[in-house]
Amino acid sequence: MGVSSGSGGPGIVVVTLDFPPVNAVPVRGWYDLADTVTAAGHDPDTRVVVLRAAGRGFCAGVDLKEIQREDAIVGANTGCHAAFGAVYDCAVPVVAAVHGFCLGGGIGLVGNADVVLAATDATFGLPEVDRGALGAATHLARLVPQHLMRALYLTASTVTAAQLHHHGSVYQVVEASELDGAALALAGVIAAKDPRVIRAAKAALNGIDPQDVHRSYRYEQGFTYELNLTGAAGAARAAFLEQR
């Protein structure tokens, strides 16, 4: 349980999220994920990272129970920023393999990945406004067009893997039983190339990105802090947890 890494073949590091029952990641988990992805990229033998998850879904976001119980909003926000940034800044390409639900912080991870594969059962969304928080619109905007992003954000609605494939942000949609194999196959194609070129390509792609994802996400988080200070965030979290 937690964040683990292992070999997926020559040059491939597989990083797995495993926080039962729904991969709601605690503060420490976000930092562990950041450290694991960063370490994989720094290893000269690594050519590509595959980011996947065990259990019912890819990621349900932050652990709301921890935040409500321990007032861990600062840790959750800085941890998410570290994890999302680690995926984006990883020295090698990151391939995200998504199954089931990908919500909240899951969007932050996937939106910053280089290539996204998804199972047919995958759904993507930001329930933040229903939880009294804001954030990861920066990353959702990398997956869907601007006005669809706004509609999804304001309504807390979800979209399917097929819809994201239509928009080009999901590279391939496969059956859930085939997802890991498809992700490793794609990673193998990347890993077979000259690692010097691949690392340079990752740096070049980040360098021409039209949006500074680090600054943009931190700007969003400022409003989350404000909502916590007003009490609106705590009330929304309490209502959600009570319904569950």
Question: Which helices and strands occur, and which strands form pairs?
Answer:
Blueprint: E1 2-9, E2 12-18, E3 24-25, H1 27-42, E4 48-53, E5 61-62, H2 64-70, H3 73-89, E6 94-98, E7 101-103, H4 105-112, E8 115-119, E9 123-125, H5 137-140, H6 146-155, E10 158-160, H7 161-167, E11 172-174, H8 179-191, H9 195-207, H10 213-230, H11 232-243
Helix pairs in contact: 1-3, 3-4, 3-10
Kindly summarize this structure in a few lines.
This protein has 244 residues and is of the alpha/beta class. 51% of the residues lie in helices and 19% in strands. The model has no long low-confidence stretch (mean pLDDT 96).
Do you know the CATH topology?
2-enoyl-CoA Hydratase, Chain A, domain 1
Largest sheet: 6 strands, mixed
Number of distinct beta strands:
11
Question: Helix-strand pattern, N to C?
Answer: EEEHEEHHEEHEEHHEHEHHHH
- Work out the helicity level: 40-55%
Domain unit count: 1
The class by helix and strand makeup works out as alpha/beta
- At CATH's second level, what is the architecture? Alpha-Beta Complex
Strand order within the widest beta sheet: 1-2-4-6-8-11
Q: Number of helical runs?
A: 11
Portion in beta strands: 15-25%
Distance between the termini: 23 Å
What is the mean pLDDT?
96
Provide the gyration radius in Å: 17 Å
Q: State the CATH class.
A: Alpha Beta
CATH homologous superfamily caption: 2-enoyl-CoA Hydratase, Chain A, domain 1
Low-pLDDT runs of 5+ residues are none
The outline comes out as globular
